[in-house]
């Protein structure tokens, strides 16, 4: 510890921190632009110059390490004179167009110029003008306002992992720009808007929509990925105008992924369902809530009476709130059926009875940075979990070694120490290999259950490297990604990963598919436990008589795509609870019930680390739409079911998962044990489909955000194969091909991609173009058109 | 033993070149070695240590010896040892304009005071040279240079400031004349004559 004095205040600080950090500790604000706590030190704005005893000239607080006995004055005459001098320089070439600038009112330069700027400019010369840059559909530029702090450059390089912006030219001609003909395509790009201390980078979707002071700021939670980023939703006239991060060091730090930030555009889009609608004959008529709910209640009653309770079922979205999921399963179970599921893209449910709790990350998100070895199995990590990947990216800089096994890789923008590119049917054999090698290296016996299966183990250099990496780690984690969950033999992978983590002494966890993947289990929205029933796959293979769809668009959200729609369409009654009016629903549904999206309802998401985050409506429900929990509750009462006399969201919450913010850890458990010997299905298949769920197709809200849909990540799915597979199947890259399964086909462009394993074709799911294939996994054929 | 040092004499001398002399040699000796001021004209000013060192009037320089102490006492520095000699045909405003342009162009743009300040300095001097000077420009130049000096990451900010400060300090009258009369104290034809290419 060092003794220093700042502005006359004595304090003890730890060695190695900067004057800026020390000043923050005593609450002395040092004006700054380029300094940001999460970015490297640039010291280029020179705004944070402070007076230091014995220093001949003012020193930048952000770049000056503290020394013992140091005396610092942040607001002495010398310091302020230096700060004012720098401010004048910053302003001489700044356009001072605050009245027409979107940053006005929340601009660091504007704020600090009040304290440090002159009343009049002494600069009488011509001002610099910088041409604007095209950074893509999310970030709008006014580069003349840029003060060259390079925060955006450092962000893309350090946090997002790829240098997409840079400073070109010299001196007064220096400009921030993307690479020639390139845009900023990182899935974290929106953060540069927050980082920009001036109005050079502003939000394109939000442009000129409101002033910072006109909006109220309301807390919420992101309904998209499993992290549950904390949001500040800004609202004007009961409309969501934009979304900003709410800083939470344990979850999203001060960042947001673009998905969390820009998805709000869908909330006021044209496809919003605002009135209850009932199908009469072939036409849809808008009606009252009472009529629509009565229709559903009577329909359910008569179907249960006629065909038995097992003929009804509910499919819920993993992006639905815990309260909605709880009430949905209560309703179905109250009617005597166990047919409820929210794991829509999963196809292998054989471990359901062996689960000992809700599958979760197995550790806290905040602790990711302390790991030194990670094995990620079956994940399109960077796009599926943008901010968890960001944490891993930072941890890698501190020495973490990442191993990954997946059938296809795009650039994770972080160094992967051991990368196994393996086709889906070979994943089990490699995992067996890793298990065997680990057991040899660690001297830990593999459970006898795997005894016979170990004969199938494939041990090659890659497998040995992964095993070696895990064996040498002290704080190790093994994570299953979304692809592993959606894998045709997900249970094999789960069991193997579990055993690998046991043998290596690692933490074992699931990265989690969606905002409420953990919450869904806790709410009991699964067909096991209290009252057993059919799982999502079973419900969609043979038609039930009645379906309740909670925020589900089966053609895109379910593994079987349009095949699911065909099954559902055969039912006598399909009631859709949704915030949106999807085209397909107009065909198969009988009732459309407008329920509120996350901004208009109270609810809870339980994120991958088991943290229950509750939120409240930030705006009024649009039109006649109502919070889902209220709608299902009323429906339950109309059906005369017990346990639906819940008056407040808190009561539902309590019934759902106890209501406390940290979920009872005993309910979170990744331990599985299956009776009998492990038999892995190692049958080699032909050309296999590898379906990623692209970041901007994955749920109904992001699919309708027009700006996100204009990004490169939202481009049409293509069939990616490596050169060998292309030649083998007589297909040329750049031509259209027909990809077909037994159920349907898709015509897409073939693209050469060396990141895809041999014998695989990577073709995205959750898109109308590929939804006719009827499955996410398995064999496909590819032929030239 | 007296330390030897190299000086690179350029500008208005008859024999520009590199000279190895003991430190402490009078400047007048060095000037003689370089063949004296060309055309027999009067010495006006000398930058003793490269373009970033403060300029000194010729009369001051003639009393100096070429060593650190003497030059430092006179208000400049030995710097790189690149001695730039200017005779009476030199317009000091034009000379400063050229120097300031150099620093404006050389600024890398990394930190604020130099990126913004060097352009400001050049533009003001350029304006004065072109008859668009304002009465408070000299104060402005001084003020801008103090805001740059000591506030930058590297020494280029200081390097850009010192010529401006010293030119204004020692040749302020010439700048004032420019501003007031919109023309140079040194007649154009004299400047023209002085700028002719020297043939030995």
Radius of gyration of chain B: 17 Å
Most extensive interface, chain pair and sizes: A-B, 32 and 30 residues
Mean pLDDT of chain B: 94
Compute the separation of the termini of chain B in Å: 35 Å
Oligomer: heterodimer
Sheet with most strands of chain A? 7 strands, mixed
Number of strands of chain A: 32
The unreliable regions of chain A are none
Helix content of chain A: 25-40%
Tell me the fraction of residues in β-strands of chain A, as a range: 15-25%
> Major β-sheet of chain B, in short?
5 strands, mixed
Mean pLDDT of chain A: 95
Given as residue ranges, the uncertain stretches of chain B (5+ residues, pLDDT < 50) are: none
Walk me through the topology:
The complex is a heterodimer of chains A (785) and B (200).
Chain A lengths: L1 E5 L2 E5 L5 H7 L23 E4 L6 E2 L10 E3 L3 H16 L15 H9 L22 E3 L9 H9 L5 E4 L6 E4 L12 H5 L5 E3 L12 E6 L8 E7 L2 E7 L12 H5 L14 E4 L2 E4 L2 H19 L4 E5 L5 H13 L5 E2 L31 E5 L3 H4 L1 H12 L3 E6 L11 E4 L5 H16 L18 H11 L4 E5 L1 H5 L3 H15 L2 E4 L6 H6 L13 H6 L4 E5 L3 H4 L4 H8 L3 E6 L4 H6 L2 E4 L8 E4 L5 E4 L12 H11 L10 H9 L30 E3 L15 H4 L9 E3 L1 H6 L7 E5 L4 E8 L7 E3 L18 E4 L1
Helix pairs in contact in A: 2-3, 7-20, 8-20, 8-21, 11-12, 11-14
Chain B lengths: L3 E8 L5 E6 L2 E2 H7 L9 E5 L8 E2 H5 L2 E2 L1 H7 L7 E6 L4 H15 L5 H18 L7 H12 L7 H26 L6 H7 L6
Parallel strand pairs in B: 1-7
Antiparallel strand pairs in B: 1-2, 3-6, 4-5, 4-7
Helix pairs in contact in B: 4-5, 4-7, 5-6, 5-7, 6-7
Task: Explain the overall architecture.
The complex is a heterodimer of chains A (785) and B (200). With 785 residues, chain A is an alpha/beta fold. In chain A, 26% of the residues lie in helices and 18% in strands. Chain A has 23 helices and 32 strands. Chain A has a 7-stranded mixed β-sheet with strand order 14-13-24-23-22-15-16. In chain A, strands 2-1-5-3-4 form a 5-stranded mixed β-sheet, with helices on both faces. A 5-stranded parallel β-sheet of chain A has the order 19-18-17-20-21. In chain A, strand 29 and strand 30 form a beta hairpin. Chain B is an alpha+beta fold. In chain B, a hairpin with an 8-residue loop joins strand 4 and strand 5. Chains A and B meet through helix 2 of A and helix 4, helix 5 and helix 6 of B.
